[in-house]
Design brief:
By secondary structure, this protein is an all-beta fold. The strands form 8 sheets. Strands 3-6-5-4-35 form a 5-stranded antiparallel β-sheet, with no helix packed on it. The protein has no helices and 35 strands. The N and C termini lie close together (9 Å).
Length: 455
Amino acid sequence: MLLVALLGSALWGASGASCAAGTELSTSSSGPSSTTSSDTSSSTGASTSGSGGATGSTSGSGDASSSSAGSGGASTSSSAGAGGIGGATSSSSASGGTGGATMDAGPDSGPDAGDGGTPVGVLVMLAGSATTVLAGEYHPGAGWMTTTLADATTDGPAIALTSSTSAIGLIRSTMGGQLRSTDWAPPGSWLPFTALGAAVTAHDTPAIVASGTSAAAAFHGDDFKHYFALHQATWAPVAEPIGGSAAQSFGPTPAAITALGADVVVAYTGMNGDLYDQTRTGGAWLTAHGHGLGNVLTVTPAIIAPTAGPDLMILFRRSTDARIVYTTRTGTTWTAPAPIDVTALTNDPVSLVALPGGRAVTAYKGQDGKLYASRFDPAATPVWSTPAAVFTPNVAIPSTPALAPGLAGADAELVYIDGAGGAAKHTTLTGTTWSPPIVIGGTGLAHAAVSGLAM
């Protein structure tokens, strides 16, 4: 399974899965003020008038346990048989007619086609809009089962599987910006969203990662500071200052998070536009590490711990040229950032997942608003494949797609929101081929998150 100079002092910022600013952003970024993109994508900067921290914002205070989420899931549906991993369905079953790359849609296609071995693994998903949250679980050969939860979010959700039968999801609720969580246990059981604590609010998209059987989360407070939460049997701590209360890290956008053994590492954009990473080990935060890249970040980076080779990998959108670049750490040494490909351009944060053998996949919203992906293989030359459209014809998407490790012999799973109607859809990567998309469900959705576990 898998942070600026301010009054002469270095301050730390966050990174996450919020919408990115557009291309050719100004490189003069002295604080979390709004930044206007050169196109219609929304900015990641936020007004400095945002008052209150993660534990002290007046918004959402006093109603931590009295939201409408208490009514739980409103409805449940199943799309069993809606196609297996590897594209066992034909393109006509994709409910929309968008075709994937060329593949055999016959009865023997896909590793769960029933002609050898038992398909195993699970995916869980959250997708949100201003009016609802759609939760789903997927088992190869059985399709998607979805539940509508009584809450809403206009920011990206986050979810992490902590075992094959448990997962923790997070949203920034439209109810006062409260940070709320849900628990999943199969089949189709989702607890109502509940607040992590009274007046615990988030400014935008949270991030979460499984760390053993625990779930570690990072979130961006209304005071633009970064906070940490840990879920074991319960949430504790719920709003620990990242970096400690005396030197708390902060910045213009949320942080990304990954697990590295028993430690967790966050990566984020500093108020000076530099890249920062920071490690929590033994329950304490080490000093943030600035990469000294200059003012080159405006949106949240992505971070993973590869399964082999370097300890860490970070991808980020370089604001000076909109290229997606990557850097890796071995021991304490980071490599110089390099573009994954000169054609890999985006205005938004990217998604990144670690795969077996030190491989990885990234997926992103291109500058044309459509869905692209590239594969990393340390044994290949070049190590990153040329970014390519996931589908032919390709699809428009409103937000960063979500990635998870592949199930049942596949390489990766991808969940995205279709820009045409706002439905959540699922496609699988096997080798170099993406399967035709499966409709998970929903309409008018804006953001999605997914987590997977192969067994």
